[in-house]
């Protein structure tokens, strides 16, 4: 289970605190719930989610007549999965991959969050599944970003369409689409720039790129994936708000979950933004990208 190793930091911190709590209280009472609330908030589960969870737990403890803190442990994980799933009744959000014809994914997010790495990992995995993949270096603002995507292209053994730094992002995306069409590509993965310093520019650039894709391929982009860095905690939440104002985000890729003890941010994102987490990054290597599975995630936090 990739989640188990990837969530090691969150799990060890969370379990240690939970075990301490259970050992300290034995019997559950109001103070127990207050301390539990604190432990969950420290794991970045998000205030709204924590409030709901505590309320559910108090009711469940009454309903099942649970008195021992140890017995409540199992209920906590069950309720966390339930709360996650409740948001739209489909706990596991499917990725919009066309079974026939070209699928286009647009990746957005601030520099440094792991956008290029995620595109590289996904290219590798799709290729392993027998799909023909093409990458487009749409972050034309930074020469380094173009270069880095090219490196990932080599690693994953897929082609990369790129222009010189400073050129029009919409033009390189256009070229990428034409190349994808003529080469019979199955999945086109488009990188974009992530400068948040100038929100108006960012919005204009993203909407221009999106318009080109929409015009050239009806129904595309099939996913607009916002990449967020889990180690930035609540900052990731505010980035998500900014980007969802700039463009229609269809899903989130949460990277670097392996590097944080605050993996609960996944639940906060779902609850507070109502955007499904579709993939998670659990390391720096090619295979460290997983489709998000709430059950595996929550149990990865506990077991
Ligand atoms: P970009 O600027 O958004 O394209 O970010 P990069 O893809 O260049 O990634 C920035 C750094 O984060 C690199 O050092 C990556 O190796 C690292 N990184 C990306 N995803 C993950 C992840 O899931 N886990 C860990 N530990 N590091 C990651």
UniProtKB/TrEMBL annotation:
GO BP terms, alphabetized: SRP-dependent cotranslational protein targeting to membrane
Domain of life: Bacteria
Organism of provenance: Natronobacillus azotifigens
Top enzyme category: hydrolase
GO CC terms of this entry: cytoplasm; plasma membrane
Segments forming a coiled coil: none
Its job: Involved in targeting and insertion of nascent membrane proteins into the cytoplasmic membrane. Acts as a receptor for the complex formed by the signal recognition particle (SRP) and the ribosome-nascent chain (RNC).
Record's bilayer topology term: Peripheral membrane protein
Name the UniProt record assigns to this protein: Signal recognition particle receptor FtsY
The SRP54-type proteins GTP-binding domain, residue ranges: 276-289
Record family assignment: Belongs to the GTP-binding SRP family. FtsY subfamily.
Gene3D superfamilies: P-loop containing nucleotide triphosphate hydrolases, Signal recognition particle SRP54, nucleotide-binding domain
Catalytic activity: GTP + H2O = GDP + phosphate + H(+)
Keywords, in A-Z order: Cell membrane, Cytoplasm, GTP-binding, Hydrolase, Membrane, Nucleotide-binding, Receptor
Annotated GTP binding sites: 109-116, 191-195, 255-258
UniProt cross-references to SUPFAM superfamilies, sorted A to Z: Domain of the SRP/SRP receptor G-proteins, P-loop containing nucleoside triphosphate hydrolases
Assembly mode: Part of the signal recognition particle protein translocation system, which is composed of SRP and FtsY.
Entry EC number(s): 3.6.5.4
Signal peptide as annotated in the record: none
């Amino acid at each position: 289970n990739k989640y188990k190793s990837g969530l090691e930091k969150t799990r060890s911190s969370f379990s240690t605190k939970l075990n301490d709590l259970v050992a300290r209280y034995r019997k559950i009472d109001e103070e127990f719930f207050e301390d539990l609330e604190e432990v969950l908030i420290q794991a970045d589960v998000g205030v709204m989610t924590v409030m709901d969870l505590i309320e559910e737990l108090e009711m469940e403890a009454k309903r099942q007549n649970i008195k021992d803190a140890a017995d409540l442990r199992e209920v906590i994980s069950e309720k966390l999965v339930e709360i996650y799933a409740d948001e739209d009744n489909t706990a596991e959000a499917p990725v919009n991959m066309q079974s026939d014809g070209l699928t286009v994914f647009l990746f957005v997010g601030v520099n440094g969050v792991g956008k290029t790495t995620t595109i590289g990992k996904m290219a590798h995995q799709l290729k392993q599944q027998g799909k023909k993949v093409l990458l487009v270096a749409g972050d034309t603002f930074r020469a380094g970003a173009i270069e880095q995507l090219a490196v990932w292209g080599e690693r994953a053994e897929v082609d990369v369409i790129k222009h010189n730094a400073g050129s029009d992002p919409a033009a390189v995306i256009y070229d990428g689409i034409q190349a994808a069409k003529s080469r019979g590509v199955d999945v086109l993965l488009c990188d974009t720039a992530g400068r948040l310093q100038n929100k108006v520019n960012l919005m204009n650039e993203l909407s221009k790129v999106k318009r080109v894709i929409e015009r050239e391929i009806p129904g595309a982009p099939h996913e607009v994936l916002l990449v967020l860095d889990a180690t930035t905690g609540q900052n990731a939440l505010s980035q998500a708000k900014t980007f969802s104002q700039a463009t229609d985000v269809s899903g989130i890729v949460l990277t670097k979950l392996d590097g944080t003890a605050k993996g609960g941010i996944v639940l906060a994102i779902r609850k507070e933004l109502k955007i499904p987490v579709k993939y998670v990054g659990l390391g720096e290597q090619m295979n460290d990208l997983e489709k998000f599975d709430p059950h595996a995630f929550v149990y990865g936090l506990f077991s």
